[in-house]
Each structure stands twice: as C-alpha cells, then as structure tokens.
Amino acid sequence: MRLSAEEVRHIALLARLGLSEEEVEKFRNQLSNILENMVILAELDTAGLPPTSQSIAMENIYRQDEPQPSLPVEDVLANAPDREENYFKVNAVLEQ
Amino acid sequence: MDNLHSLTVHDAHELLKSKKISSVELTQAVLKHLHEVEDKVHACVTVTDEQAIADAQKADLAIARGEIRPLTGIPALIKDVICTRGIRTTCSSKMLENFIPPYDATVIDKLKDENYVIIGKTNMDEFAMGSSTENSAFFVTRNPWNLECVPGGSSGGSAAGIAIDEAIYALGSDTGGSIRQPASFCGVVGLKPTYGRVSRYGLVAFASSLDQIGPITKDVTDCALVLQVIAGHDIKDSTTVPLDVPDYTQALKKDIKGIRIGVPKEYFVEGMQTEVREILEKAIYKLEGLGAEVDWHASLPYTKYALAAYYILAPSEASANLARYDGVKYGFSYRNTESMWEAMEKTKQYGFGAEVKRRIMLGTYALSAGYYDAYYLKAQKVRTLIKRDFEQAFQKYDILATPTSPTTAFKIGEKVDNPVAMYLSDVCTLPINIAGVPAISIPAGFTGGLPVGMQLIGKHFAEDMLLQVAYNFEQATLWHKNKPSLK
C-alpha cells in the first residue's frame, strides 16, 4: 500500500511533528516501503490469541504511598527553556 | 606499569586491591590513551576528565580505608542515554544537546555505591534508534578494527570505546540489539539482560517494553562482575522483578558438559555472509567439543515475523515516549512563533533527526484510528507467538546459539539511505527483546580483519548459564585477546 501526502500530513499532525514538503515526500516513500514489509503479518491467523504487551508476566505493582523528598525546584527548573518565577513559561495556549 | 588502559576489570581490581596501582594512576593512564585515539574513533560525546580524577581520588580514599568492591576505582564509559546527575546527557540528539539531568539513573547510583570512575558519555544513534551510530546528530563513530566501517549501533560509542581501551568497561542499552550487534561488530562482549533484571529508572525511554541496560566489556568475567552490580529489583522501576540476583562469578567455575544447545535454523538467514556462517558453525562445533549436546536442527518457526512485529511495536512505544519533547520543561525549544502548537511542531521538526521522525511517524500511524487493530494489536498477538516459540524451545534446550548479526561491520554510508536494509542488521537480535529473554554476544572469530560475534540466548533470568557457556567458549578460543591496531 502507498501512503498519500495527505495521509502523511495527517499522521504528522497527530504526532504534532512539523515536516517540510521535502520530508512529506521522503516519508511518503519510505513509510510506504516499510509498511509493505509488514504485510507478511497478515499471513498469520491470530484470531483468539491474547496480545502480549510485555514479556514478563507481571500484575499491577503497588507500594505504600509514603512521602519522599522531591527534587529541589531550582534543579527541576534548571533545564527550562524559559521560566517565570517558579513556573515553566510557554506561548499563549488560548488564542484571542 | 605500562598499558594500564588495556586492563580488564578483574585484573585492574587485583592491582588496586594489592595497592600496586592507584585509581588515580589507572584513570590518568586511561584518559591519556583515550585522548590519543579519540580523534580517530570518536566514541565519546562528552569526556569527563575532571570528574574522572575526582572520582578516582575518592576511590583511592575508600581503598585506603579497606573499602574495595569489584568496580571500585575502575574507569567506565556510559552510553549517553543513561541519566548522570550534573553531567550532560544528550541521547546524541539536538533535542537534548544541553540537557543536564537533575538525578542519576539507578544503575549510576549503584556504580557510585561502588566508588566507580566515570570517564565519559558515549555516542549513539539518536535516542538509540539505529544500527550503525550514523544517526547521531553530532558525528559518526568509527570501528577501531577498520575506520571506514561503522561500529554498529545504537551503543556504537560504548562498543568502539571498549574495543580500543578508552575505558575498562562500559554500559549500553539494548531495545532490539543495540548492545549485542555493536559488541559483535567491535569484537567485545555485550549482554542484554532479561527484561526486568536491571532497572530502567533514568534510562531515557525508547520502547519501554523492550529496553534494557547491560554491560559491554573486554571479557566474560568482566561482564559477570558488571552485571552483578547493576542487576536487581528497584522500587523506582516496577517492571524490575523481586528475584534474588545469583552470584554470577560462581557460574564461571562450571564446565558445560551435558548442556543442551539448540541451533535454530531460522537464524542462518538468506543473505547471510558466508564467512559468518562458517565461523558460527566452527564456534558451535567448539561448544560441542567442550561437552555440550548440540542439536543442529532446532526451530523457532515464527522468527521470520519478528522483524515486522518489532517495527510496529518499537516505533509505537517510541511515538508515545517521545511525545514529551515538546520544548516546555527541558531540551531544545523553538520559540520564534506566537502559537503554542506551532512552537511544539517546530521544536520536534528541528530537534529530531530523520530516523527519529521516521519512527514517530510509523508508530503514530500504527496506533491511529482505523489502523490500531491491523498493526499494533496484530503485532502484539504475533509477539505472543514469538514468545511461545522461545518457551517451547527452552523445554528442549538450555541455550540457543546463533550469529549476532548476519554480517560483519558494514561501510559507513552503505545503508544510511535504506532504512529497510539497515533494519535487517538486527534480524537475529530483535526477537530476543520481543520475548524478553537474555542474550550475550561474544567474539567467535574474524574475517577480513573484522570480528564476528556469536549470540547465546537463555531462559528468562538465566544470565548465569549464558555467562557459564560464554566463559567456557572464551577460555577455549581466546578470540577476546585480539586487539585492533587502529590503522
């Protein structure tokens, strides 16, 4: 199956990944080639099989909810691209 | 004493313990050698000269107090995907070029408890996605055995660095072969532990159900010593299992008489290099000669579906994990726009390289409405079949022996524009991550001046038996004694 440029742009939007027009064309070809290699899975009858999400069968793990010291605020904000007081600063979320 | 940089962990430990050398002497020798060869190999993103000497001084004080443990005072390289507090951790990505973690990974905590010495952070494929280290956003690492060739990947910097003695041992991470394939290409030992054996806390996530941290070392004994330190349950990673960690060095004392080894025919794939096949056959005959019971006709019938399943599962998990790089809390951030959404899109567009984008796209597609059942859910069901393949094989065999990769190291640039060809390089290693079992790659011979690795695969949590078989083979062949001359 071949992906259309529209489909590539739609996937990029879902991932919030900006792409140049060149990248749209490149990924359209490369992703189509990769997906063609996955058709092989359709050979297998997997009806009734349980899916495996991870290989070691573990149930939900619980522990006591005991307070522990958190990282210092300054350490956490040290990598912030922009800050104001003790907050991460971003562009306006709600446009006027 | 000459050539301290070429010591193994266990030799260095004996010399430190008997006070024939100090950790500062050892560390200075290692750094001096590193700076002599690094211009040719380019294994490191960051070399931590000052921190290394400070760590060594601290280790010497501990040794003077009589507090010496197996890794005390011994210099290590750490793959740049493992968080080190106060030391830049880049994932070889522009996205994290200036990221300085505010905490240590659990494995680093454990190494610090030993008073280890950090030498540097190693180059890798960006976010561990790749098989050649050519996807690093910074530079290409070269294979010390042939500088025109790739070191493999994604832990290419760690494997190349250990092959050329830039440190005594290294840590890597392995999601589909990223420890074992570069270990094979560089002629060193690399182990991917059982999923859940080593804590992933502080390992920058790629595909969380497949990722494991493991050792890259100069011999099997060192592999056992490093695994001993990093293994174990961790309250900060609830996928680690609360099982006791056996004494791995005890396993090295046993012979392999009567151990049942299966050779799965599906791993001797079409397109495999003839010399690799011959070297592997010779290596398995050697195991037979050492007393193992070899079945040359073992079968894991679903092997041929593993590659396709992997390239749905791993990118799907990656697309969710990498959504966090939005330019808000840390990392590269595009700000030259009014709109928050556009800032986020441009942050990812300019912060990520081509392979990372490709996998985010692939994973997002496989998880998107209308395709989830056909791709992601289908791949999870195939994962069940692959896992059962291994369960059935391990009813008959203790160990499976295969090539680590179908070829020796390939030329830089050879596969970089062909993702499907690049993905095939991991065809023998990625089924192991899908099933979560442990596997080790050890040097098994050379062809055309390049090393060939043998992969041994074990049952869940049977790292001790892997080490036992690997050690017996190593001592009977001594391939690990070969060193590159860096021409």
Q: Would you give an account of this structure?
A:
The complex is a heterodimer of chains A (96) and B (487). With 96 residues, chain A is mostly helical. Chain A contains three helices and two strands. Chain A has helices spanning 5-14, 21-36, 73-77, and strands spanning 83-84, 87-88. In chain A, strands 1-2 form a two-stranded antiparallel sheet. In chain A, a hairpin with a 2-residue loop joins strand 1 (83-84) and strand 2 (87-88). Chain B is an alpha/beta fold. Chain B has a domain at 4-254 and 409-481: Alpha-Beta Complex (Amidase signature (AS) enzymes). Helices cover 39% and strands 13% of the residues of chain B. Chain B has 16 helices and eleven strands. Chain B has helices at residues 9-17, 23-41, 49-64, 106-113, 156-163, 180-186, 220-230, 248-251, 274-289, 306-321, 340-351, 354-367, 373-396, 419-424, 430-435, 463-477; strands spanning 44-47, 75-79, 117-122, 169-174, 189-192, 212-217, 260-264, 293-298, 399-403, 439-447, 450-458. Chain B has an eleven-stranded mixed β-sheet, with helices on both faces. Chain B is globular. The mean pLDDT of chain B is 97. Classes of the chains: A mainly alpha (96), B alpha/beta (487). Chains A and B meet through helix 1 and helix 2 of A and helix 10, helix 11, helix 12 and helix 13 of B.
Quick structural summary:
The complex is a heterodimer of chains A (96) and B (487). Chain A is mostly helical and 96 residues long.
N-to-C span of chain B: 25 Å
Shape of chain B: globular
| Strand order in the largest sheet of chain A | 1-2
What is the share of helical residues of chain A?
25-40%
Topology:
The complex is a heterodimer of chains A (96) and B (487).
Chain A: H1 5-14, H2 21-36, H3 73-77, E1 83-84, E2 87-88
Antiparallel strand pairs in A: 1-2
Helix pairs in contact in A: 1-2
Chain B: H1 9-17, H2 23-41, E1 44-47, H3 49-64, E2 75-79, H4 106-113, E3 117-122, H5 156-163, E4 169-174, H6 180-186, E5 189-192, E6 212-217, H7 220-230, H8 248-251, E7 260-264, H9 274-289, E8 293-298, H10 306-321, H11 340-351, H12 354-367, H13 373-396, E9 399-403, H14 419-424, H15 430-435, E10 439-447, E11 450-458, H16 463-477
Helix pairs in contact in B: 2-3, 5-6, 7-16, 10-12, 10-13
